[in-house]
Amino acid sequence: MSFDAFGDFRMDGHVAIVTGGAQNIGEAFARTLSGAGAKVMIADLQGEKAEATAAKIQEETGNDVIGIGCNVTVQEDIDQCVNKTVEAFGGVSTLINNVGWGRAYDDPLAVPEEDMVESYKLNTLAAMKMTATCRPYLLKAKEAGMSASITNSGSLVGTMPAFDFIAYSAAKAAMNHMMLGLAHYFAREIRINTILIGTVITPGYAEAGLDEKAQYALAHPDNLTGRAGSPQDIANALLWLASPAGSWISGQSIQVSGGGKRVKLKPE
């Protein structure tokens, strides 16, 4: 009888919803979960792109993947996404709250109040709404003997704020605390963890207002691994947390960031 060290990382029989899954880190999440055997619903504001990404991943993995347009700040869209997932796949065992976005501001005290509120709605409340809507199906999956889980895309700026991204930093910090509280609420029923994501170079940085010089600096960090991350680096951590391999892990915020800045007192 052989031992399969990767067996617990399999997601056969699981059904996952990945928000913001049409591109970048979210796409890597969807591909990795599908490659591990899960049926996947990609929910994204860009519906056509979600459908195209789903079709591409399904061709690559041979497992069922669907894409749907979904604004995660709108409850009606969330309801439709979850209902379509249950209709297509029979339930939900795995929720990935990946949606998040922020923009740069030169003066943190000049950030408009409405921008602070909108950041909170997108980066914090959307995850709470998705969690609430998926709750009955996640609990049902747990009752059926599955490892029901929620994994969130957090950010290092949620623990050490970047003043030029103050709205995003504050909202991500709020999500960390909210999800830790929910992990305690759902103890022994639904596992909840957050990945504190370091610098992963995607088109989102340019969209957030960072110029080429800033992007170059971020892509060449002085961290312990000597490089910026890739979407797959984050997806590998996600699979550990979302799969049965992570069944003894809950209530954690785990850094996946290249090891952080190298510390040395003596100059080179």
Structure in words:
This protein is an alpha/beta fold and 268 residues long. It has a single domain (12-256), classed as Rossmann fold, CATH 3.40.50. Helices cover 44% and strands 15% of the residues. It has eight helices and seven strands. The chain has helices spanning 24-35, 47-61, 75-89, 113-143, 166-185, 204-207, 212-219, 231-242; strands at 15-19, 39-44, 65-69, 94-97, 149-155, 191-197, 252-256. A seven-stranded parallel β-sheet has the order 3-2-1-4-5-6-7, with helices on both faces. Helix 1 (24-35) packs across helix 8 (231-242), helix 3 (75-89) runs parallel beside helix 4 (113-143) and helix 4 packs parallel to helix 5. The longest helix is centred in the middle third of the chain and has 31 residues, at 113-143. The mean pLDDT is 95.
**Topology pattern, helix = H, strand = E:** EHEHEHEHEHEHHHE
Record the strand order, biggest sheet: 3-2-1-4-5-6-7
- Kindly provide the name of the CATH class: Alpha Beta
Q: Return residue spans where pLDDT drops below 50 for at least 5 consecutive residues.
A: none
> Structural class of the helices, strands and pairings?
alpha/beta
Number of domains: 1
Number of strands: 7
Distance between the termini: 54 Å
CATH architecture identity: 3-Layer(aba) Sandwich
Q: Main β-sheet: number of strands, strand sense, barrel status?
A: 7 strands, parallel
What does the radius of gyration come to? 18 Å
CATH superfamily: NAD(P)-binding Rossmann-like Domain
Helix content: 40-55%
CATH fold naming: Rossmann fold
Task: Give the strand content.
Answer: 5-15%
Assembly type of the chains comes to single chain
